[in-house]
Amino acid sequence: MTDWTEPGVFEVAPGVHRIPLPLPNDGLHTVNVYAIEDGDGVVMIDAGWALDEATDRLEAALDTLGYGFADIRRFLVTHMHRDHYTLAVALRRRFGTRIALGVGEQPSLERILGGRADAQLSNLLGWGATDLAERWRKAAVPLERKSVAAYELPDEWLTGASVVDLDKRVLKTVPTPGHTAGHVVFVDTASSLLFAGDHVLPHITPSIGFEPSRPELPLGDYLDSLRLMREHPDLRLLPAHGPVTDSVHRRVDELLRHHEERLEATAASVAGGTATAYETARRLGWTRRQRRFDELNLFNQVLATGETSAHLDVLVRDGRLAASTVDGVVHYSATLG
């Protein structure tokens, strides 16, 4: 089986090509973008990170298909994370290519452009992670502020379930909040394809709510969005990270089971006492290997704490835990009775 991270151009359906692009110092290593042949040009699903190496690889891939950057008609971007969005911005500055993005990303994107991308600091304090917040402030906040230059607003906000008409196919835009508030997927019903972005990934579970403007219940949104995929016909999964697989429904079922198991483990870790999200995260195992929290790097400790908060808040919504706020820190406990 070919390693999905290997560079190249891979036809996944007639006129649809997967192009893996590199990521810097990232555990994921690679992001898949998809080039859809559209008349005398191409439409891109996602764009990649605005890196010289990624730009060169995308240019070489398009050349293999007989196109150049000027032949990209538009970018349809699943969400605003930089490994999906920023190369589209960089190429628009050179070629004027139009970018479309889900409208739910507007609050976070405007926060970034306003120089207020460091919302994780206040989140971490509310989760009881004071020491982690200080480490994040020293290491990550300066880098976040420098990243502002990589972002701009899109040309088009995608609102609700809508239709994108291409030369030889029709894509349905489906809002799937959870990974981010404005995440969307693109459904090609006629070809039985789902351009899934980070919503449904074949080998890993996407992070939940890691964004400058975090919604109130990101895991609740994500679980609803997963169930929404079950209302569509089973489609071929074209993910942003990982190999193409044949069944969206099978992977959705696995993800729903995973989160139910995680909710159970999270509830059990709070039973008989009171804990913050940070304290709870430190009690849980992480990744498939059940690594200890302290074995994770700074970025993944922040993700883990936010994930735990998201699970705790769903447990509160469902009446399985109670929450109280003391001096700005949320504490969770078992419900009485």
Automatic annotation (TrEMBL):
InterPro entries for this protein: Metallo-B-lactamas, RibonucZ/Hydroxyglut_hydro, Sec-metab_biosynth-thioest, WH-like_DNA-bd_sf
Keywords: Hydrolase
Domain of life: Bacteria
Pfam family, one: Lactamase_B
Domain Metallo-beta-lactamase residues, every copy: 30-241
UniProt GO MF annotations: hydrolase activity
PANTHER family, A to Z: ENDORIBONUCLEASE LACTB2, METALLO-BETA-LACTAMASE SUPERFAMILY POTEIN
UniProt protein name: Glyoxylase-like metal-dependent hydrolase (Beta-lactamase superfamily II)
Species per Swiss-Prot/TrEMBL record: Umezawaea tangerina
